[in-house]
Amino acid sequence: MTLEELKSGTFVVGMKETERAIEKQEAACVFIASDCDERISRPLMEACQSSGIPVEQGFTKKEIGRACGIKVKAASAALLTSRYYLSGLCPGGSIINFLLKKGGAHFADN
Q: What fold, for 3-102?
């Protein structure tokens, strides 16, 4: 996963919002800054691991913040699963959204 995909997708930024997206099963991929303190990043890594969410750690706080369009550094961000539906990458998105909800998966409400 790249910063371009984060930038062009639907995302949340910051530790609390990222944690919330993981808990709600809305995160498709989580970006954790490589220069983030381990005591902060470890709980997030563990939550991703237990939820089966891929983690990207190849970017700094400054790079993640810039990709999210904010003027401050960001320790984490989560690319949301709803990006496929909202960006039109899935033809017939409303049908796919309905089927995924029926199957137990959850898309962020739009």
A: 60s Ribosomal Protein L30; Chain: A; (3.30.1330)
